[in-house]
Amino acid sequence: MGKNYSLLVTIACIFLLSPAFAQDGNNNKWAWGVYAGNLNYNDTEVNKFDFIRGTIGNYEGLYLYGDICSWNTGINMERDLWKEKLFFTVGAHFRGMQSSLDPESYSSSNFMMINISENLQDANYVRITGIDQHLSYLGAQFDIKYHFLKARHNDFSFFIGSGVEFNFLVMDNVDVGFYSDDMNKYQHKIENLFDAPSGVFSTLNFLAGLAMGKSTKPHMTLEIGPGTTLFGGTSSFVSASGTFNCKINIFVPF
Q1: Cβ atoms within 10 A of the Cβ of 130, count?
Q2: What is the pLDDT of residue 216?
Q3: What is the pLDDT of residue 121?
Q4: Is 37 left (phi over 0), alpha (psi -120 to 50) or beta?
Q5: Which helix (H) or strand (E) holds 196?
C-alpha cells in the first residue's frame, strides 16, 4: 500500500503547489472539457476454476478463452500551471468493462460443463456456451502533462505525461449462455460460483500525444500510452496487469 499512499500525496501536492506556478494573468487558466477513451488490457490470464470441465467423460482437452476490455467517457477540467507548457487535468467519468469466458476445445466442443453442486465431489453439471460479465464504474482521473515542440503560433504541440485513475464499482451484471433454455433456472446459481469482481481498481498511466489548437481557445488533445494496474482492475473471469490507453479530449477555456 505504500506505493498507493505515495500517489495520493503526489496528487495533493499538485493541488497545493499549483498557485506557485503563477507568473502573470495569462497563467493558471482553467478549461472545461469532455473526453472518451478505450482501455485495452495486456498480459491477461484466465483464472483457474475447479468447477469447470469439458465433456462428462473428459477432464482434459478443454481450453478456456477469456477476454476483457474497457472504455470510459466523462467530463474534466484542465489548468495551465506554467507558461502553456505544464498542464494539470482532473476528471470524473463513467467506465464500462466487459469480460467474457468461452470454451476452446480440441474436441470441437461448443460448450463447457459447470458443476453447480456445493460439494465439488458431487456431479451436477450444467452445459453452457459462454459467460459475459458487464461491470459499471464511477471514477476519477488525475493527469499532469508537459508540452514541447510547439509549432509556430502555438497551433499544435506534442506532450508527454503521466496520470492515475481510481474507479469504484456501482453495477455488476452476468449473462450466462445456456446450451438449452430449460437450464436458465440455474443462472443465479452459476453467478454465485465465481468470485466477485474488483470493487475498486486503480491504474497508473504514461501518456504521449498531440495537442491541436491554442490553450486559450477551444482545443483538442489525442493521447495514447501504456499503463499498469496498481490494484484491482480484474473481472471474475480474467486477470490482467498491463494496460494500453487511447483517449481524446476536447476543451473550452473559461
Answers
A1: 17
A2: 84
A3: 60
A4: beta
A5: none
Q: H or E segment at 10?
A: helix 2-17
> Does the CA dihedral 35-81-167-3 come out positive or negative?
positive
Give the span between the Cα atoms of 95 and 77, in whole angstroms: 18
Predicted local confidence at residue 65, as pLDDT: 82
198, burial (CB in 10 Å: exposed 0-12, middle 13-18, buried 19+):
buried
Alpha carbon of residue 189 to chain centroid: 28
Q: How far is the CA of 213 from the CAs of 54, 129, 147, in angstroms?
A: 57, 50, 13
Query: How far is the C-alpha of 124 from the C-alpha of 192, rounded, in Å?
Result: 15
Q: In angstroms, how far is the first alpha carbon of the chain from the final one?
A: 38
| Blockwise average pLDDT, block size 10, the chain, 254 residues | 46 47 54 95 85 61 78 95 91 95 66 77 80 95 91 81 96 91 88 89 94 90 94 84 93 91
C-alpha cell at 134: 458487464
The residue type at 24 = D
pLDDT at 77: 95
pTM over 0.85: no
Q: How far is the C-alpha of 166 from the C-alpha of 156, rounded, in Å? A: 30
> Which residues neighbour 173 within 8 Å (Cβ) at sequence distance 6 or greater?
133, 134, 135
Q: How far apart are CA 133 and CA 140, in angstroms?
A: 22
C-alpha grid cell, residue 193? 460460483
Asked if 225 contacts 94 with a C-beta cutoff of 8 angstroms, the reply is no
